[in-house]
């Protein structure tokens, strides 16, 4: 999943970025409010970690403008402003969750994963499709009890497809949600990674919808959708 991290303190920003990337997120970084506002309006993020004390435009201002523009991305506020009035202001501006500094890195990771799951309609930490199970907390997956050995990119793609189970997603959608903007974003690589995922799953779960992209679902796709297994 792709996350926008908005933090102006360089050391904390880099530490958080490394932690989030190790947890399987693709991370874009903004260090001021204006850049954050622009990225949130132009890029398809799955969640945002937003500091409040930002240069050029504060976090509350950024969040209010996103919500006024109809941008509903889940937002986790991360700030040293821990007083109740500040929390009220954050939630009234449209925040989904709030963590105050100092904090445990793992807490941020777990809260982000929960926000993304709930936004996609999956309250449980385990994503399930037929014989496939993926624990988003541990990062471990299995098919009929058989452990899956997934690369980082395979795990990201499988998580994205599971969160959108039953929906057709294009190759460009997958690229936008599993790579940050500085990555080599070649959509042709997606076909290769999906092919490897199919072989590892061993079950007909990921279907090709001709001219549109891929769909993950437990039951076979109808023949007229061009499902390839």
Automatic annotation (TrEMBL):
The modification 4-aspartylphosphate is found at residue 51. SUPFAM superfamilies: CheY-like. It comes from the Bacteria. GO terms for biological process: regulation of DNA-templated transcription. Residues 124-218 form the OmpR/PhoB-type domain. Keywords: DNA-binding, Phosphoprotein, Transcription, Transcription regulation, Two-component regulatory system. GO terms for molecular function: phosphorelay response regulator activity; transcription cis-regulatory region binding. Residues 2-116 form the Response regulatory domain. InterPro entries: CheY-like_superfamily, OmpR/PhoB-type_DNA-bd, Sig_transdc_resp-reg_receiver, WalR-like, WH-like_DNA-bd_sf. Residues 124-218 bind DNA. CDD domains: REC_OmpR_EcPhoP-like, trans_reg_C. GO terms for cellular component: cytosol; protein-DNA complex. PROSITE patterns: OMPR_PHOB, RESPONSE_REGULATORY. PANTHER family: REGULATOR OF RPOS, RESPONSE REGULATOR PROTEIN CARR. This is Two component transcriptional regulator, winged helix family. It comes from Rhodospirillum rubrum (strain ATCC 11170 / ATH 1.1.1 / DSM 467 / LMG 4362 / NCIMB 8255 / S1).
